[in-house]
Amino acid sequence: MNGNPHSIETLEPVDKTVETTRIVIADDHPILRESFRRLLEAEPDLCVIGEAGDGVQAVDTVRRLKPDLLLLDLVMPRQSGLEALSQLGALPSTRTVVLAAVIEKAQVAQAFQLGARGVVLKASATELLLRCIRAVTTGRYWVGHEIVPTVVEALRDLLPSSNAEERQNRFSLTPRETEIIAAVVSGCTNKDIALQFSLSQQTVKHHLTNIFDKLGVSTRLELALFALNHHLVSND
Fold it and tell me: Which helix (H) or strand (E) covers residue 48, if one does?
């Protein structure tokens, strides 16, 4: 490996017989980059095509190689992961998973607002990282179970205000559906929502099915993150 800890390393794609996900790894620790590369390339459907050692080089590498997925360290020299993510927002072909040793709820909210599709703690098990990558590459959102409470707090506390009628009209949501979305973001269960709005749990499930269909999401977590990205709930 190159002795410069912040240098970019471009790797030739591996010729595989199966469709592969092309990945760039951005982390300022060479040993971690090497570990991630070995881990990922042990999988037949994953291929590391480039590496970067800081945020500035991460942006340059992604723009040049146009990978399917970017593994982006939250804390890096010259430019943080969030600053790099902000610059890469105009590249919809690359989905981003943020890697972090620890993460604050404000950083979680900002990461998803800037377009991240997943957040994984570096201490997570290998299998969780691989599950995250495969979920994100199929268009889903992912967060490790250990930071779900942080995500819920971020959604509840940091959502910007937005006109309720505008939110409803944008996705053809009914007033009741908008209320149920707000309840999901607040962490309510179907039973909680049923009690809050004097509905049966079956009716709540019916509303959620309609909401999922209208917004193109498949889980409550994806719904909450979609609400964050599209300002479907306010903290008025």
Answer: strand 46-52
